[in-house]
């Protein structure tokens, strides 16, 4: 049994962004040399998300509008969390989109369906944030 | 350390369906011969879900009504994703219900509480879709 | 390869509660002696959640208000599930908050970002409920 760890760093230009990180996870998998197992990819911060969906810009705009409807950013004062901060909505949005994904590794590759892509969902950006990749297997 | 992989195929009669797949995951676990470890069960498509909840038909009708309230299918034109497609709502519903579950395996069995059952949640059905089962352990 | 299993027991004073269980998961990890791998922490009941977010009381009150908006408890009669029961809302709330978390283990520790804490989210409490910790690795 082997394990492999890698940290990705992001500093997005906007408060909210969706970044396709599939190729970065593939690189880590190649570096690991692991052929069979599982990879965990998770946001290391509680105002961001890692999720799997379609890479389609219209859909990302739909996510933005939809998440703003379910957990609106403003007014900041509607949330008790926002005493000294303004990011309560980011904590809620991340619960809908999820913290992490676990993906099967088969024959040295991400074992994906035809449209699965891994995204980093940032809900409180414009500063240094991290994503953890942990692979276990053999 | 061992691993085991199996793919399940579904073609549901309706656009939205909830199927209890616990017995199919149990079968795969028996085939694998793995006694201790973890099983990942995930939708291989981005308009479907694998989740764990109660097997109760009233609850499934409640899910249907609730998901339609949070991420309504129609009008299709409300979503930018729906240029040539009509399934943006399915991409959103799956974020709420989740892509995957990870279940502990203990003494050769799914290590479940009294009411836990694994479901395939289809949000854009009436065509061939797949679910991946990946087991690692010993 | 090794595995370790532990069950936590809870009986919360209120219908809905958020408990920080990070130290309990850390204890289990120490007991396991596992240095590299993954830990799965999941609710064993379908009206509760295990999730990772910030340990901040204002935020927990925001969760309470927000989940009541998205999946209100009352009137109980709005849900078909509530024939003999009154907890349909708890089944829905748990879908938003999630059943489980998977956390990387690196050098014998939970491999966490600066603010990550593990919570047990109870949505139908005042009775005995359980959380499963399963660790695999070496």
Quick structural summary:
Chain A is an alpha+beta fold and 138 residues long.
Structure description:
The structure is a homotrimer of 138-residue chains. Chain A is an alpha+beta fold and 138 residues long. The longest helix of chain A has 14 residues. The model of chain A has no long low-confidence stretch (mean pLDDT 97). The first copy, chain A, contains three helices and eight strands; from the N terminus they run E-E-H-E-E-H-H-E-E-E-E. The relative contact order of chain A is 0.39. The first copy, chain A, has a five-stranded antiparallel beta sheet with strand order 1-8-3-5-6, covered by helices on one side. A three-stranded antiparallel beta sheet of chain A has the order 2-7-4. Helix content of chain A is 25%, strand content 36%. In chain A, strand 5 and strand 6 form a beta hairpin. Chain A is elongated and about 50 Å long. At the A-B interface, strand 4, helix 2 and strand 5 of A face strand 3, helix 3 and strand 8 of B.
């Amino acid at each position: 049994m082997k394990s492999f760890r890698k940290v990705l760093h992001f500093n997005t230009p906007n408060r909210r962004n969706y970044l396709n990180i599939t190729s970065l996870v593939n690189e880590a998998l190649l570096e690991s040399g692991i052929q069979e197992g599982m990879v965990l990819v998770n946001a290391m911060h509680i105002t961001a998300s890692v999720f799997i969906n379609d890479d389609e810009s219209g859909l990302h705009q739909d996510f933005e509008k939809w998440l703003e409807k379910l957990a609106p950013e403003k007014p900041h004062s509607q949330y008790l969390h926002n005493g000294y901060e303004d990011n309560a909505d980011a904590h809620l949005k991340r619960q809908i989109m999820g913290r992490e994904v676990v993906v099967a590794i088969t024959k040295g590759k991400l074992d994906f369906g035809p449209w699965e892509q891994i995204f980093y969902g940032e809900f409180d950006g414009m500063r240094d944030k991290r994503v953890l990749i942990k692979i276990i297997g053999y």
